[in-house]
Amino acid sequence: MPTIQDKEFGIVTVRRTARSSSMKATVAPNGSLRVSVPSYAPIFMVKRMIASSRSELRRLLETRPTLELKDGMSIGKSHTLVVRSGASTIVRKQGLQLIVTLAPDDGLNSEALVSSARTQVLAILRKEAKAHLPKRLRYLADTFGFEYSSVRFTHASSRWGSCNNKQAISLNIALMGLPFELIDYVLLHELAHTKQLNHSPAFWAEVARTDPGYVLHRKQLKLFNPHV
User: Fold this and answer.
1) Distance between CA atoms of residues 155 and 79, nearest Å
2) What is the mean pLDDT of residues 164-191?
3) pTM higher than 0.85
4) For 87, which DSSP code?
């Protein structure tokens, strides 16, 4: 995909698609700006849109998720962030560690560093999610008598999971940052939607059948953020 180097917003990714009939700006998973445009739109028109919409784009970027980096922090279930000092700032994955090497004048809150680290964190969470969640979902479905058609993974969502009328379940990779009992609660919640595609008393009865502690788990889940 082509990119634009903007003096204020940094690298802006341009996504051309035949489905787009107008230009639309969104925040990419790494926190940068992304503009979807019709396949025929020239780059100079994208630059013109950015120049004329700076106030709106600033407000949009204010809504992007923040990633607070701390030495020793856990990433998912098996990875750890390690901060070191060095001549230049580099983010790299080594085994089960995400190593951030900081130059003398850099800090952990620099926008470029956070953006680079977020890309790596998303890759780690996706890998862990694919390794754990499908098997756990299958186990819980078999245990409690649910059927679902498919499972897919998301990350740019304000929800932990969803289920549609075709019994396809979507799971946010940020689930890997939750305690295991809350992961199970979300999975059971979405499995219950395969029988009750609503939040009626019948739905919550289905959740209670599989998770007697769901009231507490539901309350605890609100303490966590599904954004990465």
Assistant:
1) 18
2) 96
3) no
4) S
The CA radius of gyration of the chain, in Å to the nearest whole number, is 21
Going by pLDDT thresholds of 50, 70 and 90, the confidence category of residue 156 is: low
State the Cα–Cα distance between residues 98 and 82, nearest whole angstrom: 6
DSSP code for 156: S
Confidence of residue 84 (pLDDT cuts 50, 70, 90): very high
Closest C-alpha to 161, from 145, 142, 178, 144: 178
Q: What is the distance between the alpha carbons of residues 97 and 109, in angstroms, rounded to a whole number?
A: 19
Helix (H) or strand (E) holding 57: helix 54-62
Q: How far apart are CA 148 and CA 194, in angstroms?
A: 7
Q: How confident is the model at residue 90 (pLDDT cuts 50, 70, 90)?
A: very high
Whether the CB-CB separation of 141 and 147 falls below 8 Å is answered with yes
**CA separation for the pair 147, 194 (Å, rounded):** 7
Q: Is the dihedral of CA 132, 216, 150, 119 positive or negative?
A: negative
First-to-last C-alpha distance (Å) of the chain: 23
Q: Cα–Cα distance between 30 and 22 in angstroms, integer?
A: 23
Q: Within 88-179, where are the H helices?
A: 111-144
CA distance 227 to 210: 27
Q: Provide the greatest CA pair distance for the chain.
A: 60
DSSP code of 67? Answer: -
Q: What is the mean pLDDT of the segment spanning 208-213? A: 97
pLDDT confidence band for 141 (50 / 70 / 90): very high
